[in-house]
Design brief:
four-stranded antiparallel β-sheet; single chain; 15 strands; 66% strand; 183 residues; mainly beta
């Protein structure tokens, strides 16, 4: 994955494997293609990146899945523009993978993903503040398989999630809006 900050730096994020251990390589390259900083995130968990986002301050949000005790969890982390880990969080609901992340000017992040829980396939949305504290996490299930296809946040911090709902009899697309408190 590669994103660019406002200063023109390229921020790259890659899933890596060394032997049986997985880790995430994160790097920042300047406009002159010189390395600004390089970090390897290896905390003992099996984590997989599926999406990245950079905010106006150059902070990098990385989301995907953490596998722990055979279960997948919606997972995300934030790195500062200097390459320092600011926070890392995994949701408590199992069976989920994050596919989208957005942030606001305060450093809050919204993470959205799709889940498999038995015979249910809900989406999951989690809001984390700038310090990494989970403010709320909610699931939405309209039956069938629910896939997150988009995530935006408006000026009053409502999260709008575009959800594709697939069923045997056909499918549809809905936009689900979550308020400030996740309602």
């Amino acid at each position: 994955f590669a994103v660019y900050d406002r200063a023109g730096n390229a921020l790259t994020v890659a899933n890596r494997v060394n032997g049986g251990s997985s880790y995430i390589q994160i790097a920042s390259y300047g406009r002159n293609q010189m390395l600004n900083w390089n970090r390897n995130h290896a905390d003992g968990y099996n984590e997989r990146v599926t999406a990245v986002h950079v905010d106006l301050e150059g902070n990098l949000f990385i989301v995907g899945a953490r596998v722990w005790q055979g279960q997948r969890y919606l997972w995300g982390m934030k790195y500062s523009s200097n390459g320092d880990l600011v926070w890392e969080r995994a949701d408590v609901e199992d069976g989920c993978i994050a596919f989208n992340v957005v942030s606001n000017d305060n450093g809050d992040a919204w993470v959205a993903g799709s889940c498999i829980n038995g015979n249910r396939y809900p989406i999951r949305v989690m809001r984390v503040n700038g310090y990494g504290n989970v403010l709320w996490a909610r699931s939405y299930d309209e039956g069938g398989r629910n896939y997150v296809r988009g995530l935006t946040v408006d000026y009053i911090e409502r999260a709008a999630v575009t959800v594709e709902i697939s069923a045997l009899s056909g499918g549809t697309v809905r936009t689900i809006v979550f308020g400030l408190d996740g309602g």
